[in-house]
Amino acid sequence: MHFDWPYFWAQLLTPSSAFLDGLGLTVIMAVSAQILGFIFGLILAFGRLSPNKFLNGLAATYIWVVRGTPLLVQIVFIYNGLAAAGIVSFNDIKIAGIVFPGNLQAGILALAINEAAYMAEIYRAGIGAVDRGQFEAAKALGMPPAMMMRHVVLPQAFRIILLPIGNQFNIMLKNTTLVSVIGVSEMLLVTETINSATFRTFELYAVVALYFLLLTSLWNLFMGWAERHFALGRPAPEAPRAALETPA
Amino acid sequence: MSDDLLIEATGVEKWFGAVKVLDRVNFFVRRGEVVVLIGPSGSGKTTLLRCINHLEPIQNGRIAVNGALIGYRERNGRLIPDAERNIAVQRRDVGMVFQRFNLFANMNALQNVSLAPRLLRGTPKAQAEEQARALLARVGLPDKANAFPTALSGGQQQRVAIARALAMQPAVLLFDEPTSALDPEMVGEVLAVMRDLALSGMTMVVVTHEMGFARQVADRVTVMADGRIIEEGHPEAVFTDPQHTKTRALLGAVLH
Q: What is the pTM of this model?
């Protein structure tokens, strides 16, 4: 076996602009799909927690279907399937001089739809893990349900689900590679394209793997900080010691 | 219905599944009155308290606070469940203190106390916080404004919880076994705050096993057993000359 070290280092340390564009697309897709997933997921979670049978059933069905089918199939279905059926075609949109390609829109949408189903269950678990006494105290003060959720329950649920959220975005970063099947030039597709011209397969895929490892590692660092920063019931920074003293 | 009746519960019945936990309960509290509810565990006293602010639904009878039905509205002579939003508005006048404190874990003491007036009474932040500091001082915790619940002892948490309930300026305060989850050395500090409140004229309904408190502070003691009110009267009368055998058994068990 021959490993072309100089080529490997060159690709790793001085990547082509096409590869860097791919890196950018990977990050853009992951971040935007995750944000949309957070929002759709919260709406779905409220559906699942709703006493309204129709809303509850609707949310449960969505989660059942989306979690029960492969993401790869969902991506192809949304981009190619819907267009073939004449339901939705994703066309390029130009916003402020920047072209936003149809396949990128479809890719982000598919990732977001998929993510929402998982986030919904994570929110539901987080809300369910908040102590019942917190709900009761908010109710007893006279807070209507939405206010109780916003000020009391969700901030605590968020801290509980911080670790699963960390997992989700880690998975999301890697799942963006699946969008290569509909022709979005993210890192993997760019690598495949370079490979088909150079056949330095081992070196090139090692490089793309390392770039993903870099992205997920940066995310890990951020999550480590977030975990320390948002620890539940953290004493106020100005009085950490005095607060622990026994009362006079 | 007399004007000075703050809580009027008549013919209240409640089941948990097949178990009847409240059986035709009639319970009245006048403005300014301190009523202590006692009874063996499982007698329904906590459930009755939780029905007064509709944390528990009832299956029969009616409960009115400040002259208005809570939890239900009357339509064509029948009671139908009220909207959650309306119930929330009524609860603003009924403060509650829980056995397990239930301070909001994501907020420090000051935020716990000032949150509800800000959100529900429209009090400006600075004013709500000033009021909260005054209340924390009143419960003996002027220096704990920035402390989170996890950094406070049980007794301190319960005192913050009392301040939080007071911040809404409720017409009545409900106490659900406020000292039962406390270490013995912290019971006194909480009871002292409650005693001060009672002396200030606050209307209070207290579920407790603290017979000393009941004797000293209560205007009336209500004894429950098996979901019924079995005896009611001035604390001296109930404690020195209990009429019901179950009251005697209860007082014997608690006092000795």
A: 0.87
